[in-house]
Amino acid sequence: MRILITNDDGINAPGLQVLEEIAAEIAGPSGEVWVVAPAFEQSGVAHCISYTHPTMIAELGPRRFAAEGSPADCVLAGLHDVLSDGAPDLVLSGVNRGNNAAENAMYSGTIGGAMEAALHGLPAIALSQYYGTANLRLDDPFEAARRHGAATVRRLLDRAPWDNEADYQLFYNVNFPALPAAEVRGLKVGRQGFRRETAFGVEPHVSPSGRRFLWIRGGRQDIPTGPGTDAQDNLDGYISVVPMRADLTAHDALDRARSALEDTAG
C-alpha cells in the first residue's frame, strides 16, 4: 500500500512521528509511506489553500518533504508533484496535538488535509489526540493514538463505507481520548458535537513598543456535547469516529427553504 501523510502541526511535530508509525504498520514491509507536511505550524487554517502565492517545497530525506503551506497545500503537492507517478491508496492527516472534535473540526487544518484528499476521490482519515489531565503528564501524551491508531485505521479501511462514486466522497474524523492507552474503552461512531457556552475569542496585549496585538484563545475543551457526539464519546473514554463530507449543504433545511423562498407560480 502507498500512503501519503500530512499534518497541521508541522514537519517536526511529535504527532507526525506517531502517524508515521501508524502508516508504516498499515502499509506493511512492501508498502510506501510518503510524508509531505507543512514546514511550519499551520494549526487553525482549516481547508485553506495558498491560491495567491507559490508554495516552496523541499526534500528533507527519502520520501520526506516539507512545504511552506497549509495541509491542503501539502496534499496537493503530494498528489500532483511528489507522487505524480501514481496516486496513493490512502491519505492520513495528523496525529494532531489536541482534539478536533465538535466545533474544532471547522477550524482544523488536520481535517482540511483529509478533506482535500477526499475531494480528489481518495480514502482519507484525520486523526487527533485529545489532551487532558489524564494524559498530559504521561511520558507519551500520544500513547492512546500510538497504541490504537493502526487498529482503528485498519478497521475503517476494512469495514467502513467510503461511497467512492459520490461527488463528495466520505472521509473520517478520528479523535483519541485523553487517557492512557490501557484505559481506552473502545470505539464509537457518532455525529459532530457542539460545545455550548464556549467559543474562540481574543485576548489583547500591548507590546513593549506600544503596539496592540490580539491573541486568539480557545474555550474549554471538557464541555459535554450530548449523547452520540464525538467530544462526548472522547470524554467518556472512547475513540470517536465521525463520517464527514465536504458538502456544506444543510440538507435538513432544503425543503423548508424551498417552501419559504421559491416562487410557486408557473
Automatic annotation (TrEMBL):
Entries under InterPro entries matching the protein: SurE, SurE-like_Pase/nucleotidase, SurE-like_sf
Cross-referenced Pfam families: SurE
Binding site for a divalent metal cation: 8-9, 43, 96
Domain of life: Bacteria
GO-annotated cellular components: cytoplasm
Domain Survival protein SurE-like phosphatase/nucleotidase: start-end pairs: 3-196
Entry EC number(s): 3.1.3.5
Family: Belongs to the SurE nucleotidase family.
Record's protein name: 5'-nucleotidase SurE
Gene, per the UniProt record: surE
